Amino acid sequence: GPKVLQIPSHQIIDMGQMVTLNCDPVSNHLYFYWYKQILGQQMEFLVNFYNGKVMEKSKLFKDQFSVERPDGSYFTLKIQPTALEDSAVYFCASSSGGDTLYFGEGSRLIVV
Amino acid sequence: QQKVQQSPESLSVPEGGMASLNCTSSDRNFQYFWWYRQHSGEGPKALMSIFSDGDKKEGRFTAHLNKASLHVSLHIRDSQPSDSALYFCAASASSGSWQLIFGSGTQLTVMP
Fold it and tell me: Of A55, A95, A104, which is closest to B43 when you measure between CB atoms?
């Protein structure tokens, strides 16, 4: 089936530093998302992105977070600076605008 | 209060048995539902969507939606050990899953 690739799969970073999580969405998909999952529990919506713009974001999408997809390359989530509570698994998803989101395998971020 | 509530938190069924999972939306705007399944260490994968009252069957999986009560259930017939996973109900205010809100999940264990 359609694949969303996420890089890196794991990253350990010092608190206060910057991290960029990369997502290669399904080819021809136009809608992109980031979700946050802590301890294998609830998937929490962070942001969605379409046509080069953030369309909606949740309260979890703090000012330190940003997303972009320059020139159709990776869809990225940048956190600058990182905080301890940012430790989680971040899932990227994409959709064609239809009814199904396709998720990647996640990027596990550990902030120490 | 969370917009999407799931029950039970965990469920064990014997191989070949029937597993029944429940989900309710507390926001009348969120009346388009999906079921996603997440195996350990992977991203969630969509099982099925349901937007209309009544039953929707896909193989061993049957979803049932009651729009008046905003209650949706998922029934897994002839459960297999490979069905052991975290099952999420997700709801959206539109069929385009623009902002998909996930429930807290039901951990299903199918015992051989």
Answer: A104
